[in-house]
Design brief:
binds 6-O-phosphono-beta-D-glucopyranose; DNA polymerase, domain 1; alpha/beta; Rossmann fold; about 220 residues; single chain; 9 helices; binds magnesium ion
């Protein structure tokens, strides 16, 4: 494979924000009188805010109208933003900055492919905005992962063919999305949860471009 671009998910790949999403959703579930486990949270990774709420309400057996649901997604986002308010560069996941720098020196193009509507804000907080030539986030997509739209738009924005793109993802639904887009899907995290990936790395710690190429052989 002729690797020309890397497309990165944000939450749980670039920054350690997946835990903040979980905490805010759990707080919301608790406010509705049910609990929501970390294992159940796996279903939410990579999924848009409203779709995440729908999954949670199903788990809690709650039926609400659209106005109530809109108010709850706003509440969850307020709680989420409280947690990311003070976020600094030390919440960038280990090895990520070195890897992004290495890609720049090798002229490998980079894009972000995230479901989050807070993506630009988050990248600004941790000073990574300039690393991504194209940013596709929840404000630019109409369909959630596992739909490939977010990654297709990323590749189109870069002008690179899907077969020349690698996607880095921590969500099972993101892996499906990347593969449906015809890209090489590398899971970042737990190999059991990311069983459909072409390859899995535990994190970017001690990862460099050569190791990625070896992994792909
Ligand atoms: C994804 C996260 O990146 O973004 C999900 O994995 C989150 O957990 C989704 O629900 C939407 O994020 P936001 O910031 O727009 O609520
Ligand atoms: Mg993620």
């Amino acid at each position: 494979m002729n690797i020309q671009a890397c497309i990165f998910d944000l939450d749980g790949v670039i920054v350690d924000t997946a835990k903040y999403h979980y905490k805010a959703w759990r707080r919301l579930a608790n406010s509705l009188d049910f609990d929501f486990t970390e294992a159940q949270n796996e279903q939410l990774k990579g999924v848009s805010r409203m779709e995440s709420l729908n999954i949670i309400l199903k788990i809690g057996n709650k039926i609400l109208d659209e106005a109530q649901k809109t108010a709850l997604t706003k509440q969850k986002n307020d709680w989420y933003l409280e947690q990311v308010a003070d976020m600094k560069s030390d919440e960038i996941l280990p090895g990520v900055v070195d890897f992004l720098n290495e890609l720049q020196t090798k002229n490998i193009r980079t894009a972000l492919g995230s479901a989050s509507k807070n993506a630009v804000l988050t990248l600004e907080k941790v000073n990574l905005l300039n690393y991504f030539e194209v940013i596709i986030d929840g404000t630019k997509t109409t369909r959630s992962k596992p739909d490939p739209q977010v990654f297709q738009l990323g590749a189109q924005g870069l002008g690179i063919a899907p077969e020349n793109c690698i996607v880095f993802e921590d969500a099972a639904k993101g892996i499906v999305a990347a593969r449906s887009a015809g890209m090489y899907a590398i899971g970042v995290g737990n190999a059991d949860e990311l069983a459909h990936a072409h390859a899995v790395i535990p994190s970017f710690e001690q990862i460099n471009f050569e190791k990625i190429k070896v992994l792909m052989c």
